[in-house]
């Protein structure tokens, strides 16, 4: 396929309109399924080629992007499967383990999850440190995803925040380790945040702190290795902080490692369009998406929350 792919965009809310903006910037033809007046206004404002009111009205397309509320992902994806085209769905794959596992069984190689942090150049650079051994063997990861309030009301903040960090684990470590312990955040409503510990005996350890009830916004990732650490301090940063040596070396210098910080949303959509043209599949398969959902449910249970 050499011509511009024709993409169906299901949903054009606050995030969907940004997806539409980037799809159009990347040269795609986009038919937008926008049932409400707000979503239709977003679709018009951001350049949709065609706007329809339901998936049933969606014409033949080369692929589809699902940007509906998280609790509707399973139903929407199941409805799109008979079209037999690649599907790219906003994280999480679903907010329900049974539907995630069903999709993983039914749609291997056809559904991919939009884990934008796997397309962040800083995260990819950290993954290269983990794989190369340049600063020794991996000891573990510490991830912070903290902020004040959430705008997604269909699911609680943990479902919105935690899948990001689990996908970062997947990208850096090549796996999402088993859950060891978790407890809910005592600083706000139980469902607003938690601390989770993952890992297996003798392997890398992962500590994740996530909260929507924290007065200071923080998005940081720290990789600890036997001969140094490397840190991404913010999602918009254009550099990592590398500190070689051990904590006993008080004079170990901090070195800035710069990278080109292309917007991850645009990067992952470009990967999907390349796939529609016959290129490799995007990152985060449906099986990996289902694993993330499984881990979220495990962590929630250990923290005493409803799955």
From TrEMBL:
The record's listing under PANTHER family reads:
BILIVERDIN REDUCTASE A, GFO_IDH_MOCA-LIKE OXIDOREDUCTASE N-TERMINAL DOMAIN-CONTAINING PROTEIN
User: What region holds the Gfo/Idh/MocA-like oxidoreductase N-terminal domain?
Assistant: 7-108
Put simply, this protein is called Gfo/Idh/MocA family protein
Organism expressing this protein natively: Mesorhizobium marinum
